[in-house]
Structures
1.
Amino acid sequence: MEGNRILLEDTPASTATHASIHAPKKAARFYRPELDVLRLVAFFTVFMCHALPFDDAKHANSGRAWQALQTFREAGNFGVCLFFLLSSYLITELLRREVLETRSVHLQAFYVRRSLRIWPLYFTVLLAVACLGLFWPALRMPIPQFLAYLLFAGNWYDIFGAATHNPLSWLWSISVEEQFYVIWPSMAKLGGLRAIKIGSLVCLPLALIAIALVDRFQTHPNVAVWLNGVVQFQFFAWGALLAILLAGRIPSFSSATRAAMLAGGAVCWLTASGVCHLKKANFDPGSLRLCIGYELVAVGCVCFFLAALGASVAKLPQFCVYLGKVSYGLYVFHELALTAATAVRQQIEQSLALGGRATSLLFVADRTLGLLFTILAASLSYKFLETPFLKLKNKFTFVGSRPV
């Protein structure tokens, strides 16, 4: 289609008034493979953030190239925000279609589906790390910290528990996601899309208020703001608002417009990182810069989302679609894989007394090996651990989504 005109796809509707939770009537499947590719992009930005060398004391006076690398690396954190927006958009859209098909939101079915999707891998890794921590000090964590992550309150523990060592630090986002699941479907059940819309609009100023309060009362505000669920809920809010505004419609943009939105999203993220310093270690950017920075991150997420939604499926590399499909496993395993690869590299460096260029080449090999380990672990997990549970979801599904 020419130009930037928007295509309006009919939203499936049904006159059905009842559906059993055990044998639901299936509506038309809602699955957008281009969003799986966007999931992969979100994961890869997070991976690069954790894989690239980071700022420390010995690099304090490094040149512009190093500072540019740090700006790029720190911007990778915002892939988590993109994950939140994507999750909210998809869940809100599926809930909207479920109401159209069955005239209700089935809370029990929703929570069963989410539990079958998130819990098997999450609890397997949590318990595995807890057991390994008995023998490997790097993976050891206090019992209160373990219990907090067990109860999906890991982000709040890390804020108020003053955790100095956390072998599961990257899984704080799973806690935030689960907190979102507790609230959103209940709002849809009680007040429909109007409640979701109002709740989303309330989340936006609440996030800014939370940023200002945290900046005033917390010792390390940039860390406390980042982990704060109230702040991060703004990205869920944007995803929900996009689902409500689009109402099943898929925009058709020209390739040039999509490229411009991708570039705009990247500029927003890099500005939030390099100018507002949202994720710069041991640095207090102040309330104003924090607020502006988080809004830039939100605008960037929306740009990336709109650039991807409706992109030609025929042009999507199938291996990217697959990796997006297993992106949950990629995210869960990547830090463990990087930790293992780093341990191997350090042993080699010590035994061979390497230095200079050899050390740099070994570092690149280490990061590459970490990525390969991550992909292998995620693929095996998806096939042998997650898939059996995902197949059980069909018994509690009213609107089909991604095929297993």
2.
Amino acid sequence: MNDSDELLAAVQEIRDLVRLMAEPAIAERDQKLRTELKKIVGKSSAKSKSVHLMDGTRSQADIRRTTSINQGHLSTLVKKLGASSLLDGDGKKPKLAISIPANFFEGEDKNE
């Protein structure tokens, strides 16, 4: 591992720690949008996995291949997210407009 790789790894670790510490403040700021996101996704694991892949680097086709979600369901999901201001961009390479933790869709029965 060279110096630039070590530096990059350290910066990524710091970024992850900052995100972890900032999560409560981000959750409070985005509460309305996060509630709407949970309402749209529901209890579907295919939809929740798809949402986690919406980082702007993958096309809808890439997301479908990775999650095996039905094409119509993904298209409808993207349209609903866009209509609720939860997506940035045009939806061809969907990017979630808010950040969510990896466990965002877990344990919903306990909170609802």
3.
Amino acid sequence: MIKDRKITSHRDLIVWQKAMDLVNLIYALSRNFPESERFGLLSQMRRSAVSVPSNIAEGRVRKTTKDFLQFLHVASGSTAELETQVDIAFRQRFIQKADYNKAMALLSEVGKMLVSLISSLNAKL
């Protein structure tokens, strides 16, 4: 979260901003996937990536902290799903090692931020 500034929107959350960076990265990495993966892994990876910031945003506008937490847990689950899909893409040689490492590092960062936010909100319940 941003210190010394009031959070007025999901856009103010650094975890949402990083999740949006993750979406951009996944779209870029998946552009060169084989055509045969258009409705397979490519589509699934993009949906998982989009799910992360989408759930953060939807949860942020909910009326209760409990509701927000539920959506953050879904976002966290999507990071685990996407991590598995990035592994598959690498094993299938659809992405290079450097791109794999970049995606995994950003996934780890977003995942840790979600865990931290979840813990912080749980402490307030």
